[in-house]
Amino acid sequence: MADEFMKGLAIATASGLIWMVLAGWYNTPGFEDTQLLGADPADPSALEAIALIVKEGLFWFMILGAVTFWIVLPAAREARARLAN
């Protein structure tokens, strides 16, 4: 169980950190404006578009990875153990 917890924590920490960096670069219009949750740039270049796609992918990887290792896998293991008995 500790192994699954650490995998979920590592996924949430690493992808969350990279998501925060990318969101800080592309979604923070100013210090006193909305930070990390502002609108995407209106006309991104090719590299900015790739970075925005990576940012969205990392967000969902952070959420789904943690849920998978903290909820889905332990629940599946518990269900398999109960069905075996």
From TrEMBL:
Alphabetically ordered keywords of this record: Membrane, Transmembrane, Transmembrane helix
Transmembrane portions of the chain: 57-76
Pfam short name (any one): DUF7314
The name this protein goes by in its record: DUF7314 domain-containing protein
InterPro entries in the record: DUF7314 (IPR055738)
Source organism of the structure: Haloarchaeobius iranensis
Domain DUF7314: from-to ranges: 1-84
Claim: Transmembrane helix is one of the keywords in the record: yes
